[in-house]
Every structure is written in structure tokens, then in C-alpha cells.
Amino acid sequence: MKVVVLGCGGSAGVPMVGGEGGGGDWGDCDPAEPRNIRTRSSIFLQMDNGEAVLIDTGPDLRAQLLAQRISRFQSVIYTHGHSDHVDGANEVRAVNRVIGQPIKAYGMPGVLAEIEQRFSFVFKPWTPPGFFRAVLEAHPCEIGQETAIGSFAFTFFEQQHGYAGSTGVRCGNFAYSTDVVELPEQSLCALEGVDTWIVDCFQLTPHVAHAWLDRVLEWRERIKPRRTILTHMGAGMDWATLCATLPQGVEPAYDGLSLHLPDPPRAKA
């Protein structure tokens, strides 16, 4: 399985709109370092058998897919309904056209309902031929229950994201936890045995809705992944500074980071 980080920025990206002369607010990030350029958070899973899964459709999706030369996937997982994770929903229309079929959308029932409310057209049945709009098929999921997505087994775990919830995703020995500030005990248990974990770390100091560095390190001590990769990073998280100061086994993501991992278990028939 190949995991591609399409974007690893917070809701405003890096640089943020603003700055001197309107050229962008970089915060503490060095604008000369290209790995500090962060689009909104999303990842892509490519299985060895050709099946592919996108996690979240942020507002930068079209540019992300073009940058990584991705044009095909059969499924999308939604972690929660915030704008920086769903506002690119209509961009999957181009992928509908490439694969010639609807795309299956997985998420908690409330999240799928929120997406349908905001993008009322996406879950309407497809009327072939052609795609004049994005077409998704809703597949509600449950926390803790194994879900077959294509040929492979995924599980979802609960996360607290400030005043709202979000969903963590585990696929074999890989897990993804964007937009999380609290992990309940059952979710920490669900993460045990994970080899590679991509996890929200918006800034160095405490935040009301996102994990910060010390919190991530506490979770890491409990879960003990071999590799911990920070995502959903704000403008206070300079890539080179993080690389120089993080403990071994912890690293910042960057847009376009590609990981090669064993394929996850097949779903039960």
C-alpha cells in the first residue's frame, strides 16, 4: 500500500492569506523551504491491486490530485464535516468521468447527512450517461466495526475535535488521526499495534480543538508506533525546525510525502 499525503495544513493552509503586501502570512515558517507550503489536509491510499481510497475532499483537492498525478479512486472516507475537509466534494466529478461510475462515500451517518445538506446533489442517483455533477454513494459506518472498502478491511475510531467529533481511520498497521484533541480510552486501545500513525499536531502549544506537540508525544508513548508523522500543521510549525528538534521516530509531514507500507488485511467475505 502506498500512502500519499496530499495536504498537511490546517484550515487556512500555509501560507495563510494576508502578510505584507498580501503575499501570504508564513508565521514562523521559512518561505524559502518548499515543504512549508501546506494545502488543506487529505491523504490517498493506493493498494497493490489497483484499488484506491481518498480520505477527505478539501477545497484544494483538484490541485492536489494534479500535483500527485492521481486520477482514479473508487472510494472516499470522510472524517468529519468541517469545510476544510469536505468543500472539494464536487471536484470528484472529474474522477467519476475517468472511472465511469459513482464513487462510494464512507463516514459516520451524521457526517454523510451534513455533506448531503451542504451538497444536495452529490448523493442523488446517477442518471447515465455522463457526469454533469459529482456522484457519491453514501455508505454509513459505525465506530469499532470492521468495514469492507473495496477488498480491504478498515476500522473507525472516535475522536474529540474541540466542540465537535471526528473519526480516526485504521487500515492494517496504518492509522490516520486528523483533527483531534482528545482520544478516549477505547480509541487508544484501537490504535495499539499501529506501525505508522499520521496524527494532527496543529501547533507547539495547547489548542482547544487540535492536538499540540506534547499531547502527541504523550499519545505516542502509550501507542508506541514505529513512525509518527505530524499533519494538519499551522504556520507556527516550521519544517526544518521540527526535523531538527523532534525525537527519533517523529517527523513532520509535507505535501507529497509518500509512504510504502504492507497492504492491509483483506475484508472478511
Automatic annotation (TrEMBL):
Alphabetical list of SMART domains matching this protein: Lactamase_B
Lineage: superkingdom: Bacteria
Domain Metallo-beta-lactamase residue range list: 39-232
PANTHER family cross-referenced by the UniProt entry: HYDROLASE C777.06C-RELATED, HYDROLASE C777.06C-RELATED-RELATED
Protein's recorded name: MBL fold metallo-hydrolase
